[in-house]
Structure formats: C-alpha cells, structure tokens
Amino acid sequence: xxSHIYIGVTDVDRAWRFYRAxxxxxxxEERVLKEGWAGWQSPGVARPLFFIGRPFDGQAAHRGNGxxxxxxxDRPTIDRIHATALAVGGTSEGAPGPRxxxxxxxxxxxxxxxxxxKLCVCCHDPA
Length: 127
Known about the structure:
Layout: E1 4-8, H1 12-22, E2 29-34, E3 37-41, E4 49-53, E5 69-72, H2 75-87, E6 91-98, E7 107-112, E8 118-123
Parallel strand pairs: 1-4, 5-8
Antiparallel strand pairs: 2-3, 3-4, 6-7, 7-8
C-alpha cells in the first residue's frame, strides 16, 4: 500500500540514534544514512521504506497533531520496543497492553520520538 513514510526531525543524528535502537527490533535494516536523512526497510524487499530527515523545504520540523505512524510486531517485541524507546530518549504515550476498545485482539504501545512524532507498535493477532 505504501511506498515510503518520511518523518521530519530537527536533529538527524539524535533521531538516527533513537530509530537505530528500535527499528532493528522490528526486523528493519538500515538502508541509507546521508547528510540530512536516513532510511530503513525490511530485508529482501524494495518497499516500503521508512525515512527520517530534515524537512525538504528547509523549515523547522513540526510534529503533526493526530498523526501516528504504526508498525506491526508480536507482543513480546512490542514490550521490548516500548522499553527501548524510553531508554533512548522517547516518551511514553501508553504502555504496552491490550486496547479492547479498538478490537478484542489489539495489543499496542504508543510513544513519541525525541522530536515528538507519535509512533505505535501494535499486534492484531490473538494472544
């Protein structure tokens, strides 16, 4: 469905350290690190890609109110990612756990990166 997702950040080095700690837990590999941006992808596939970087228009990066980028993972990985995200500068927006208000099998965590971009890691499978 998606070609890529690009999230604007203010400090690429700081953001790279944050994402470099959590994205391998999802099985994503670093594809590129260049001046001003970095990207990851699943092994063996060309798309989708996940990028972080300075906004192309040269303006300051701003987090979007209501925007959430969500990744799929199993429940133990969700728990590890939440702990890792907090250890490398993220802030919690919701500890790992069931969210039956979404559907009976939904298990997720929500957190923000050091720039305040909201991220989710979730599972839709039964426990």
